[in-house]
Amino acid sequence: MWTKLVLTTQDARHIMNAARVEATRRRLEVSIAVVDDAGILILLERLEGARLHTPDAATLKARTAAIARTTTATLQGQVSTNPALLSFPGRMPLSGGVPLVFQEHIVGGVGSSGAQPDEDEAVCQAALVALRELPING
Fold it and tell me: What highest taxon heads this organism's lineage (predicted)?
């Protein structure tokens, strides 16, 4: 048996806040999702002005990053040589999803949708920085 690191709701709120601050600083109209390591939604926020499709897209990007254990930008780059990546249900290999890695363990994923790819990535990177600030509890 081994101990597994998991995101708490409080952790997800801290991560979401950092992502929201970055999106607001950049004046982005995005949705942001935080999922656990199985891709199950913990938090979702649609910022003012974000388009209607963005909550679903952000959630799918976060889920894809957590399950695939890599960024969705990396997967997007692989689609041209491996189109089968598009056939997995419930996945979205488009830039804007980043796995949440804490002490070399995937504890979840974060996704942003509604901005340009590099801007969505920046929102996710802000969340990743916030994750690394968290203490280990319990």
Answer: Bacteria
